[in-house]
User: Fold this.
Amino acid sequence: MTSPRFIHLRVHTEYSLLEGAVPAKKLVKMCESAKMPAVAVTDTNNMFAALEFSVTATGAGLQPIVGCQVSLEFDPAKPGERPRLPAPIVLLAQTERGYENLMKLNSCLYLDKHGALVQVTLEELERYSEGLICLSGGPDGPVGRLIRNGAKDRAKALLQQLAGIFPSRLYVELQRHPGEGGTLTEAEIATERPFVEWAYELGLPLVATNDVYFPKPAIYEAHDAMICIAEGAYVDQIEPRRRLTPQHYFKSEGEMVALFADLPEAVENTVEIAKRCAFSTYKRAPILPRFADDEVEELRRQAWDGLRNRLDVIPHAAPVEDYEKRLQFELDIIEQMGFPGYFLIVADFIKWAKDHDIPVGPGRGSGAGSLVAYALTITDLDPLRYSLLFERFLNPERVSMPDFDIDFCMDRREEVIQYVQNKYGREKVGQIITFGALLSKAAVRDVGRVLQMSYGQVDKLSKLIPVEGVKPVSIEKALADEPRLREAARNEEVVARLLDYAKAIEGLLRNASTHAAGVVIGDRPIDELVPLYQDPRSDMPATQFNMKWVEQAGLVKFDFLGLKTLTVIRSAMELIFKSGRPLHVDAAGNQLYEPAEGAENHINAIPLDDEKTYKLYADAKTVAVFQVESEGMKSALRQMKPTCIEDIVALVALYRPGPMENIPTYCEVKNGLKKITSVHPTIDHILEETQGIIVYQEQVMQIAQVMGGYSLGGADLLRRAMGKKIKEAMDAERPKFEAGAAKNGVDKKKASEVFDLLEKFANYGFNKSHAAAYAVVSYYTGWLKANHAVEFMGGVMNCDIHLTDKLAIYADEVQKKLGIEIIPPCVNRSLSTFDVVDQKLVYALGALKNVGVDAMQMIVTARGDEPFKDLFDFARRVDMKRVGKRPLEMLARAGAFDLLDPNRKRVFESLESLMAWSGAVIEARESAQVSLFGEAGDDLPPPRLADTDDWLPGERLAEEHKAIGFYLSGHPIEDYLPALKRKKVLSWEEVQQKAVGGPFVTKIAGEVASVREKKSAKGNRFAFVALSDASGPYEVAFWSEALEACRDVLETGNLLVLTVKVEVDGESVRMVATSAQTVEKATADAGSSGLLVHIDNNDAVASVASLVERVAREGKVHSRGPISFMVYDNERGCRYQITAMPEAPVNAQVKGALRSLRGVSEVEEV
Assistant:
């Protein structure tokens, strides 16, 4: 191989977020293709790619040069002046010390900047200069910037200063990015001559770089669009903005040699620099802080003490000797592998959390298989009770770090992290960075914006990209699958341009944030091991390496996960204890658990054999029950009819693609409909609890141990190899398994069959430790719902208080399924959160849309123990201006002021005057202008309330929906019920009742909530339409033909009548639409009925007439008929009926409005 003549020393990968378009994974191949033996990665102000690139490049035989383009503060602003923009220089790690200093400088870029510009100072540069080579930054660097600003003397002085900071390690950087005709950029023309002259004068070497931002010139325009996304600019804007040219690509050696033919030494020095930068970073062994002087002894002491404490209170699943033998075995392995400190650290922060009443999950992942973890209270599952294997968590035959994933209450997780920071030192604890990619839909939206296309058009194009699972498909696949997208690109050049640009930048990294759970703890300041980044939204620094690479750098990751379900449980328990009710009463009537030390200390002690709970599971009444909420899970529960916790464990493991095909067999065997299939007498006992089916990874390991003679560690290696389908490993393991089986009296044919069975299920098998832990959490929620339904649902709704869609489902569950009354939002009865009073659920003020819990808490605090007497009392005591007009409007719409004034429209229209008066009263009170006759402000006359009729019932319902987000007190379809009944249209509740008798065709009415369009494997469009009526929400499928015919009426908010085919799948009712039309059209020929109004006095007749006239004028009139009056004659002591209005509007809107009139006792349909 000939010696290289040029090496790229300034390359921006995709880790230069929304700036570099060189995919990090492709850079090595680009160098191989260009026959370059080395390359420097110099991302802008970060080292995100440093370790990943170094390890990958070294593995491919390429020399990595770790560098960074750093923004330097070279011209500090004087006091009172606006900050001046920094300019880039390039720093390359020459030695290990240089790498450490580069990390320090990177950390300086972000830490303690308090919102200032991301930059380093000359002082910081000098402090951390050792072991670094500096390139002066080229035309846009600090020296070049001063030359272009006419400050040549200062520019030369700065160059000399940099030469002093980097003796024999400063290179004057030249760049040439010629445009058409070979003309250099203005900046390059202005700076090259001074650069060359000063380099010769000062004895500084020159170096030629190409500032690489993208792989090839062909994607320049797409890259420019990406720059616009980052800068908030437009591609075609008139103002000059482009700082890059099509020449900023990964040029070949030949191109660079030709470009600098007149200055060959500048090119040759790139090779010289590469030779000087021989250092490359490397992986480190795990580093942890020392927890105790003798960690082995400390772990043994805590574990034995903990086990004794456990065995004193739990039912024993095995003889005590078995527990002791297992504990000793685990401790020996942990010591042998060098992990006592890890266990002690985890146990310490979990104990702290529990001591401070912070809910902690019973376990997660394979860690629940450790008895040591159970003894230390890291987990709360007895591994012997659930037959969990330690080797699945920590395998002595495969050395890797243990990894406890810990679930905490999501509201208090941060407190645990703060404890860890305080214990080990804030400088030794950090979060972990994570990166978001520019996926297809987002790329289309972003590019459409910078091309100045209309929002509607871009939104439509984005929605044409299908989603598979949780991610949208690539643009290329979307174009292949979606003809409407191809047609749009053919018809409009701008759409084709958009898709071309989006395709080129799709998949590149877009943004950095912090990992949701990962925290690292070091034995030293972590910026000595990794560079640090500061997320503007967090006060805790994060590592610049992501989760995979931070561990390769030697830091150990601890997962502090926030699990909402733990917060639900805590909230439900608090509501139970607030009511003064016991948590649980045993069969003899003994109250078992007192609300003494906090909710989370009691839930672990509830019985796991509660009949009501298993009936709830068997009946699939599992809305809001952890892990089993989906329709598929409900169907499986109905089939299974669980009777023990093992059934829930199995279901959690089985309900996944692949294994779920075994659910019917499991259920049939469990319920005695089918005999269990024997695999082999030596291993049947292992499969007994799962009805003869291999469900868990642990069962694969146990079978390999019992039949094949493997150690459990070896069995875990076998399971891993099978799961990854490594053929070479399988071929080597089969004879070993067969030989071991032969020693146990199993013939070769049977052993081979079992091996095949293991091979199939190793890929499907689920981690039993995780399934057991989450099954127990599921049981906790099921038990709470079965035994404390209103408090449980209150806890659930408190945790989703801002998620209107979920609150709608839960409210329906509470009212319709559980038969629990919901007290509507009320300023005199509600709290800011959901509450329980007399076993009724009080709707939270903070659950209304656009209000905020804090604002509502102001009202609750002002109310105290004294309800508001009227609107003026409310305005005196509540600072309405602080609460805000929008939240107060939502309260009025929701009827929260009904006890103070039942006319919601009057309240709504009086808010401005009430707010002004409230402000004046409070201001007078605060300024201590106390009158002689009472408190300050009492002498201010209250404002006049708006003189207006209330909203009609339909309008009240619509306004209520705006505030609550769903219908709580009624439903708009009720307006049409008489006509719908005459047309024999069924309610959703009636459809469910009739479905028991078998398939049928009927009509059903409802309001459209959402439309989800999808595409079949054959390319046909279909949709699932969510609707609701007064009896609850439901879903209807529209296959392609019906969808095409009905698309025009399938709009959110439309009231429709659908013709549907109804059938029962298991116990789920499924409906497929054949047609749909608006309810007005469907009921146009339904005929009309009349209303009979019972009145107590003749004066009410005039009120009725006035209201009916108003409805006819303002409301929607769907049907007409006679209105008659039933009048009571006091003198004669009899009633008589008169027909006063033969042709009047007679819908439900009128009926409801008439009932609200004074003097009207009843309104009935006739």
